[in-house]
Amino acid sequence: MAGRGTPKPTRLKLVEGNPGGRDLTHRLKHEPMPPVGAKMPAGMSELAAAQWRVVAPKLTASRILTEVDAEALAAYCEVFARWRYCTDAIAKHGPMVKTASGGVKLSPMWIAMTQSTAEMRRFLVEFGMTPAGRARVDAVKEPGDDDPFADF
């Protein structure tokens, strides 16, 4: 069984400095390199679409967002919309609700917000939108920007 966990894309290994020191030339030549940029998928909620319009141009300018990442970014935007809905509800009604028996318990919106926060953080790290996520990715180069003598 080779290694543990999910295989890391070769480009990411190169950007992180290839700590294993393995020759990645063969893998790099055969690994897909999708075009930068993505179109917003149809059917997104209004708030998710608004978040897409904020984040997608920044990720495209950083050459992180590619055509094949559209659904992953859309999923992040929908989680963001759910998180925003929950935080707005908590701001309006508070973090506690009364029970049928007259007691008080934590609002279901608080629980949903907490779950959404965790989901959102995973997406943010994947796209390099947190300090820790950015630390993993120095810069993404355009194909052909590589120094032909870098391997020597």
Name some characteristics of this structure:
152 residues; mainly alpha; two-stranded antiparallel ribbon; 51% helix
Spatial order of the strands in the main sheet? 1-2
Number of strands: 2
Q: Provide mean pLDDT, rounded.
A: 82
Annotation field: number of helices: 6
Helical residues, percent? 40-55%
What is the 3D shape? elongated
What's the Cα radius of gyration? 20 Å
Order of helices and strands: HHHHEEHH
Class computed from helices, strands and strand pairing? mainly alpha
Which residue ranges are poorly predicted, with pLDDT under 50 across at least 5 consecutive positions? none
Q: Could you say how many structural domains there are in total?
A: 1
- Beta-strand residue fraction: under 5%
Structure commentary:
- With 152 residues, the protein is mostly helical.
- It has one domain (10-31, 45-136).
- It is built from six helices and two strands; from the N terminus they run ααααββαα.
- A two-stranded antiparallel ribbon has the order 1-2.
- A hairpin with a 5-residue loop joins strand 1 and strand 2 (104-106).
Which helices and strands, and how do they pair?
Layout: H1 10-16, H2 25-30, H3 46-61, H4 70-93, E1 96-98, E2 104-106, H5 108-126, H6 131-136
Antiparallel strand pairs: 1-2
Helix pairs in contact: 3-4, 4-5
